Amino acid sequence: MFNIERWQEIFETLKKNKLRTILTGISVASGIFILVVLLGFSSGIQNGVTEQFSGDATNEISVRTRRTTKSYKGLNPNRRIQLKNEDFENVSSTYDDYLEFRSANYSIWSGQIVYKNETGNFSVQGVHPDFQYIENSSILQGRFINQADLNDARKVIVIGTKVKSEMFKGKNPIDEMVSIFGINFKVVGVYSDPGGEREEDNVYIPITAAQVAFNGGDRIRNMQFTVPMQKSLAKSVEVSNLLLESIERDLKQKYIIAPDDRAAIRVSNTLEEAQKIYSLIDIIKAVFWFVGIGTIIAGVVGVGNIMIIIVKERTKEIGIRKALGAVPMSIVGMILQEAIFVTMFSGLFGLILGLGLLELVGPTIDNDYIKYPQVDFNTALYTVFLLVAAGSLAGFVPAYRAAKIKPIIALRDE
Asked: MacB-like periplasmic core domain: from which residue to which, for each copy (predicted)?
């Protein structure tokens, strides 16, 4: 029940000790302010890391080969291991139930592309239709390579936005013809990539067309697969690692490679790297929470001290109240209400100040590792509950001691 007289008493007490109240409030407000800012920047770090991984699928397994470094079963080291179409088909069919998207790649670095009077050198990659999803590419115009293109080895090409701007100078490139080393290809699509310009200077053609046009035979440069995400990141990493080990073992057995030769067959897993980074972010968040809560505790201790002083100053008043019939709970309630008010008001001020700073400065922070620091509503709500609990704790001990004072002893206090 709202008691205006009690609120008048609280404001009168605080008014008598303005400097003490202001300093205590600043310590609480600064604690919440620091906590909110730290949590905002931890979310900014997470946003930055997440965007770094958005360039490609997070759950990607890639297979590349080099030369052997060890002799094995009578075979000399330094053998060049060349992947072929059948390797891709074998992996795709053997592990079909565990794979989401899949693509082999036959690439030509610095392929010369000509459109009318314009000439440029770009990376030409022969891929499968699923490659669009492995790279997280978005089609802005036209379409990506499809299965019919693959089956018929059609000479079609999908270009990046950087290639479009440099070669076509604002003209619509769809259905235009470009040549790669003198071989004509029809532009069927334009894509963008979250990786930015470094990913958008590639052009994609059907891998079958690339192998035919550039004398690739049945050779491929690498293979890329994605694994469906499980219910948790840890489970996804476990499944992905098991798949990685199985693919590596199968290829080493086929090409007679020593089991401990790490260079000849290189199978990598982006999920494991993602897990390491996200684990680091969790640690950073925990440290920020620790620092922020430590600062809040310092402020709460200040509130507790001020309430002890207030109780000491009002000992005779409390004795009179009890002599007139005030029950212990009313004394506890009076002290607690004052402590909670100081803590809540100061904390909300710090909270609003922290959120305001993030709202003002956050949109201007945009680099590779920190992007758009902010605190969501739920986290802000948690800090409010934390304030209430802290204010109650800060006032309870002094309030309990006040309730225990015997009227006769309190009235003797000078």
From this structure: 21-226
- Each residue's pLDDT tens digit, 88-110: 999 999 999 989 899 999 998 88
Which tokens belong to 21? 């109240």
Q: What is the pLDDT of residue 1?
A: 45
Torsion angle, alpha carbons of 180, 184, 186, 187, to 10: 20
Model pTM?
Answer: 0.62
Whether the Cβ atoms of residue 347 and residue 383 lie closer than 8 Å to each other: yes
Q: Region 397-404: what's the mean pLDDT?
A: 68
SS (H, E, C) 248-293: HHHHHHHCCCCCCCCCCEEEEEHHHHHHHHHHHHHHHHHHHHHHHH
Contact 21, 306 (CB under 8 A): yes
14 pLDDT higher than 70: no
Kindly report the three-state secondary structure assignment for every residue of the chain.
CCCHHHHHHHHHHHHHCHHHHHHHHHHHHHHHHHHHHHHHHHHHHHHHHHHHHCCCCCCEEEEEECECCCCECCECCCCECCEEHHHHHHHHHHCHHHCCCEEEEEEEEEEEEEECCEEEEEEEEEECCCHHHHCCCEEEEECCCCHHHHHHCCCEEEEEHHHHHHHHCCCCCCCCEEEECCEEEEEEEEEECCCCHHHHCEEEEEHHHHHHHCCCCCEECEEEEECCCCCCHHHHHHHHHHHHHHHHHHHHHHCCCCCCCCCCEEEEEHHHHHHHHHHHHHHHHHHHHHHHHHHHHHHHHHHHHHHHHHHHHCHHHHHHHHHCCCCHHHHHHHHHHHHHHHHHHHHHHHHHHHHHHHHHHHHHCECCCCECCCCCHHHHHHHHHHHHHHHHHHHHHHHHHHHHCCHHHHHHCC
- Cα dist from 337 to 85, 133, 395, whole Å: 76, 58, 8
Question: Rounded to an integer, what distance in angstroms lies between the CA atom of residue 125 and that of residue 108?
Answer: 6
Whole-angstrom Cα distance, residue 288 to residue 279?
Answer: 14
